[in-house]
Amino acid sequence: MEYFLQQLINGLTLGAIYGLIALGYTMVYSILGMINFAHGTIYMLGAFISLIAFLAATTIGGASVVVALLVALFSTMGFTALWGWTVERIAYRPLRAAPRLAPLISAIGVSIVLQNFTAQAQGARVKPLPPVIQGGFTLMEGDGFTVNLSWMQIIVMVMTLALMAGFTWMITKTSLGRAQRATEQDMKMAALLGIDVDRVISTTFVIGAALAGVAGLMVTLYYGVIDFYIGFLAGIKAFTAAVLGGIGSLPGAMLGGLLIGLIEAFWSGYFSIEYKDVATFGILIMVLVFRPTGLLGRPDVEKI
Amino acid sequence: MLRIEGLKSGYGRIQALHGVDIEVGQGEIVALVGANGAGKTTLLMTLCGNPRASEGRVLLAGEDITALPTHQIIRRGLAHSPEGRHIFPRMSVYENLQMGAAVSDPRHFDQDLERVLALFPRLKERLDQRGGTLSGGEQQMLAIGRALMSRPKLLLLDEPSLGLAPLVVRHIFEIIAAISRDQGVTIFLVEQNAFHALKLAHRGYVLVNGKVALSGSGTDLLANPEIRAHYLDGGAS
Ligand SMILES: Nc1ncnc2c1ncn2[C@@H]1O[C@H](COP(=O)(O)OP(=O)(O)OP(=O)(O)O)[C@@H](O)[C@H]1O
Ligand SMILES: [Mg+2]
Q1: Which site in A198, B31, B69, B234 is 20 to 30 Å from A237, CA atoms measured?
Q2: Which residues form the domain of B162?
Q3: What is the count of structural domains for chain A?
Q4: pTM of this prediction?
């Protein structure tokens, strides 16, 4: 029981991070009908920017931990948003009329560039960040096993919840969100109502990227180690989460993220930690074969 | 209000309009009739910048809008209720109407909403219903109502009677007349239903293979034997 509870906590934390990344996939997909293969590396960029910003703020700026975290948060969101905007501008917009494969290739291209640039600039080795936020609560004790809920886990979950709530509000209630949904449902008609469709698409990339950036920040703080390659695996897992939840569905992305996090935590807790990625990809394949629309997806998905 | 000069346009290598000249005066209702594939829809869409004109000019209230992007054209006072209605299927009726007001001053919204709902009381009962689940006639009402939410100077209507029962058709045309009469909106209307359209319009144009073949007052065109033979057989009931 204690062990189960601990895996549940770990899984939810991990799932929150995947969910944040998955939102970006699903947003771009619903508006362009394409998978943004540059999205995983945005998360990696977020992790590096937050590491650098945090270290710079504390060591050079002499800031307190809270201030340094805020600096890291805002610079991460700023830089990843800018990068998301750039990806749309150079990899997607010029190719909007091209065959569907072309933007996918150019997106992979820009992400390879970013990945290698990071490896060059920051070194290919693993970067550590000494634990910043320590401590937590002991929820339960028994049979020589304790269930812990760390501050860091609380921060990850609370922040994710807040971001997702704010994001949901934005999509359902604001005029920006409405323009976004309209563009997604009927791009031509949205333009006929005076919506600047290009700007809406840009904004979609920017918001998705900033969310992935926050996920990068949280993973840096949570695990304390990052390298230039983390975007690849996390990207595929978040993509799996988006597909599992139903690609194009925002609640689906959040739900899929949580489920993937839980599956990964329980799999490594009860079976083998080596095969946890295999479990995730097994799910991806099963969903694609048996229920391509995912859990909350609409059945009328015709674009890939 | 609207002046179209030597307009050519098409899709890739296919040219659909071969030099069209049309004028729509302030406060007028002008009808454009023509057979399937004549280029009526293409003309209205070219006015909105999609597809782009390859030659010619479009002037809206004296301003050349030919090269502007679609959303800029709309912001200059044009509204389009396109062929096929294009209701946002997964948005409520209310949200569809909000989208219609996307370019207008939010302070006008309540007033404009009231005005549109007075025109289409059917929509009032269905504000929370999803656009995609409305009947064809209701969708047409919503498409016109949505276009009116932006307080347009010029309203484009592409086949507002398409696929509707005769009674509903008559109702829609009455409403179009009311929009013109009570709200002073200039209307440029495309119709298969030439009889109703020409009866309603002050003036009309006949488009044949991407060119204006005939024009004149609505009554003159209705009386024209050639028109009667081509566009009104069976429809003149
Ligand atoms: N997206 C498109 N791509 C290529 N050709 C098109 C496209 N849309 C229309 N056309 C062609 O352009 C010509 C004019 O079409 P348009 O839709 O303007 O006719 P229309 O007068 O509106 O006809 P209808 O009364 O049937 O609606 C037709 O020959 C049509 O096949
Ligand atoms: Mg047409």
Answers
A1: A198
A2: 26-47+68-232
A3: 1
A4: 0.90
